[in-house]
Design a protein that fits this description.
The protein is 34% helix and 19% strand. By secondary structure, it is α/β, with parallel strands linked by helices.
Amino acid sequence: MKYIYTLIAFSISFSVFAQQDSSTIYELSTHKAQTTIDGKKIEYTATAGYFQLENKKGKHIADMFHVSYIQNNVSDNKQRPITFVFNGGPGSSSVWLHMGALGPKRIQMDEDGNAEVAPYTLITNEYSWLDLSDLVFIDPVGSGFSKAKEGEDTKQFYGYENDIESVGDFIRLWLVQNNRWGSPKYIAGESYGTTRACGVAEYIMDTYGLYINGISLISPALNFQTLREYDDNDFPYIFNLPVYTRTAQYHGALTEKRNTDTSLVSQAEKFALETYSVALLKGDLLSKKEKYAIAEELAFYTGISAETYVQNNLRIPSWKFRKLLLASEEKIIGRFDTRLTMPDPLLKRDYPSEDPSFTQINGAFATAFNTYIQNDLQYTNTLPFYTIGNVHPWKYGDGKYLNVTDELRKTMYKNPHMNVWVANGTYDLATSYFGAEYAINHMNLTQELKGNIYFTYYNAGHMMYLLKSELIQLKKDAEVFYTK
């Protein structure tokens, strides 16, 4: 059975009905508003609509939907940062970071970071980044309302290289049209958006001499060998293990003593790197005694029985862990956030048919965004808004495992003043924090450049900002990032 994983892992005003005729010149809906962040009143202009993307010959090839928030009455744009924001997928719109963390409005979540009951509530986001930077939320072609121009082949957008070129060209053209080349420039990406961010930073630097001041890598997907659970790839089992341990503790699936042992996760990290990895490397060279000994230790750290580990050749993929951990309670746990659970709708199947950390959230974000864009930003479009669009087949690049750490490394050497912030949810099984550490620790950087990278960790999952306590901490860490 194959499992396809999406990494994942938005007054005076005028609005226009977005016609679908290819000859239409798309106007923008603009809206002046204000908000209060940390006691400071911020007056801003919100702009929503299509951006006509042109290729290097000036040909209009795509209509990319975007929403921007620009602070008003700024005397010197050279002192005001601009941040370009996108999520991942591939095929995900920017709605998650837009309505979950960075924009001036956010969806109210319940105390666990899950969606409340429909029709959902939009509230002022007192933890928006708008006091730190102007914001441009980008929906790549195939996501949100964004689409290739009629007659254009979508293959020129659906793939790693093509995607970074179209998004990079969007950034350059937006800077030109808005006269912001002189501003400090930042990129914030989540999940596959971090893959894109590394590629875009290198592309616009090498192609246009456009240097970025900093990149925020939220729930990073940098080396796909740490993520893809193929039969011949041992990396995900190693890097998911500490997440299994933290999750088992959270759900009380271990003994009472281990459930409260604050050092257990660090012990699991050490075991994963120094013992488990070696055992997997040895493969069939392991004796039966050695194999059972490793299985007992895995059971100690995860709450999954040693017998189950032996039956699965010491390898429990994340989808099976999500099914097994609370099987006695007939519950499954989330992939994007392993804290969240739901009753197992298909008990007889050996894999979880739903993701408790996405099933309800997707509907909340789709409903809230469609409501917000029409009522608050006064923009109407009859096309469906795809929170996650169908952009398959997607070409991930040469080789079996896309790895963008080389692009990030080259950019840092050529642009040694660029800062990199790596933000990780510790209950994330889509892009584990331990895998992100591995990717960064294998970049072969000088000691000086290592100082440009710093990690932060959150007690939630992939979209850590859905839990209010972690949204607050994320904003505090953003303040540090923009003042470095």
